[in-house]
Amino acid sequence: MELIAPNLESSFYNYMIRLHGHHEDLCCKLLDAMATRSPNARRFWSELDESLRTHMESEERYVLPAFARIDREEALALIRDHGRIREQLLEIGVAIDLHELAQTQRFIDTIREHAAREDKLMARWATAPTP
Length: 131
Description:
Radius of gyration: 16 Å
Structural class: mainly alpha
Helix content: over 70%
């Protein structure tokens, strides 16, 4: 069997990695802004919130149905994670306004863990042998 490597210039895998990197950058900016009580915290949060929602919706519509044909249980687990993240997005919006840094940090830790899991699964999928 031949291994298929992701196209580094245009693959969805690279898009995911870059987008997760963008989310990480926004998370760092948000935490820094909250730690200094900067008014930019709300702007960073709004950008992160919108980007996460769009990202999850796109994955659920375009990526996870195909991934489910390869690993149904992991695809369902990612969808469940998305549901929990969406629930937390509502709570964190309030935490940002109240400058609840610890709660925001826990949420960001959740996002980071989820992104790392997705990266690992998508890398495995991108390099899976073709039938």
